[in-house]
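Q: For a teaching handout, I want to show students what a protein-ligand complex looks like in token form. Below are the inputs, and the small molecule is FNR. Please produce the holo structure.
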Amino acid sequence: MNKEIHQRSQRKNEHVKHAMHQESTEVVSDFDLITLLHHSLPGLNVDEVDLSTTMAGFDVPVPLYINAMTGGSEWTKSINEKLASVAAAADIPMAVGSMHAAIRHAELAGTYRVVREANPDGLLFANVGADVSLEGAQQAVEIIRADALQIHLNAPQELIMPEGDRDFKSWRQNIERILKHVDVPVIVKEVGFGMSRASLQTLKDLGVRHVDISGKGGTNFARIENARRKSQDMAYLGDWGISTVRALLESQSLQSDMSVMASGGILTPLDAMKCLALGARSVGMSRTLLKSVEEEGIEATIEHVKDFHDQMKRIAVMINARTVGDVRKSPIVLDPELLSWMTQRQLV
Ligand code: FNR
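A: Here is the structure, written as tokens, with FNR included.
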């Protein structure tokens, strides 16, 4: 194996290893600063609840997805295969991790293609960084016969890595070009740093219609990149970014123009319901599902996802909501800290 391929595979393995062992540093999650309003007289039964939704233009029965993580090494190939089996059995979409390794080195394409083999009819999303060429993006879609393409934005991660990118001026143009020429829907996503209203407005002006605000509060790439090296150069940036809840608040005035997905630190069905109440159309999870397939196996993870969805439905009854549309309309109460954010950010 040549040295560059070896280094890439190594990096993929390190990301997975560090993510799996990352403990939350949040004392209070922003999800705790939101209350869904209890309803004493629900007028429906659990079987009537239908949380089907649309995601990047596709109708999906369950408002959950496995978000982008990995590929590019033998270990991560096996993880992709397991996650794709979970996605197939639980009938949820799945994204693979960044595919630059496969674009550069054809011999690594199989570590991603395995998801299509394990889930031939599922909704699968390719994933590239915003520095990718149009040809690279098209290749990524072809490798897994993707139904949609995620473009990830990870500027802080690059800037923290000593070997990372320092110039981001091509990103907007690349995104515009990909939107014009790639023939599947494009989702622009963060990687756990969240998006502000200004970032979302910039994406909207570029023509982006689907975003995943992937906020702070879960997997933390500032901490992962610092942990991967001995000299923790920029360890003080561990709290950088906008939380998932705050990014959803930032997105609210743009939700009629863009479909917004939420990810970043979603641990419980209640967190997911709060995302829907804040306007997300669907909710993504990465790290918890990675840990689950690796530590508990495929069958347990399928059960976990099904149970998660079932519990979301039961919570829907507690707020008297039958559909995702009803959840979006249901009342929420924000703690003063979030209200202060909204006031300072002029979101109210
Ligand atoms: C990620 N994430 C990610 N995102 C992306 O767009 N491309 C990628 O290659 C990766 N790689 C990756 C590796 C690992 C091990 C993890 C855990 C995550 C980010 C991911 O899609 C998501 O945005 C964040 O992880 C936030 O969600 P969780 O993990 O808090 O549920």
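A: Two things your students might notice: The longest helix spans residues 298-318. DSSP finds 15 helices and twelve strands in the chain.
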